[in-house]
């Protein structure tokens, strides 16, 4: 599941767009992170950006952020994969990528499970009923 909204600090010049996710293993009751489910390395990142489709946030935000990463002036969030918010849908894995405030604070991209199956770590597929 995900939680989306705005927060505002009285000393800040603008509100921030907040996006948090929560994935729970229903058999153990424990929280499950992206890195618990997937081996997130450079190959995963490449597959993700080659196959995933943007589901939330401005299209320009994705292009601007990836241009900064290509120039060495930004980060695409995969530098710290254990902190990347993600959630599961019937159609695929959604990852929220943090970006600068001017571009919306974050954007979401979804990738089909089959496109990242090779990186999946667990015996139980969380997206399937057991």
Please outline what is shown here:
The protein has 130 residues and is of the alpha+beta class. The chain contains 4 helices and 6 strands, in the order ββααβαβββα. The protein has one domain (2-7, 14-119).
Spell out the blueprint of helices and strands:
Blueprint: E1 2-7, E2 16-21, H1 34-37, H2 42-51, E3 53-56, H3 59-70, E4 86-88, E5 93-98, E6 106-111, H4 113-116
Antiparallel strand pairs: 1-2, 3-6, 4-5, 5-6
Structure description:
The chain has 130 residues and is an alpha+beta fold. It has one domain (2-7, 14-119). Helices cover 23% and strands 24% of the residues. The strands form 2 sheets. It has a 4-stranded antiparallel β-sheet. Strand 1 and strand 2 form a beta hairpin. The longest helix has 12 residues, at 59-70. It is globular. The two termini are 19 Å apart. The model has no long low-confidence stretch (mean pLDDT 78).
């Amino acid at each position: 599941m995900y939680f989306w909204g705005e927060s505002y600090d009285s000393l800040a010049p603008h509100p921030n767009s907040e996006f948090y996710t929560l994935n729970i293993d229903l058999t153990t009751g424990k929280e499950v992170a992206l890195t618990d489910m997937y081996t997130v390395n450079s190959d995963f990142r490449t597959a993700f950006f080659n196959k995933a489709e943007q589901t939330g946030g401005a299209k320009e935000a994705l292009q601007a952020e990836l241009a900064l990463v290509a120039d060495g002036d930004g980060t695409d969030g995969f530098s710290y994969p254990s902190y990347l918010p993600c959630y599961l849908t019937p159609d695929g894995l959604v990852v929220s990528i943090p970006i600068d405030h001017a571009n919306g604070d974050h954007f979401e991209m979804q990738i089909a499970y089959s496109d990242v199956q090779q990186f999946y770590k667990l015996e139980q597929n969380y997206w399937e009923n057991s």
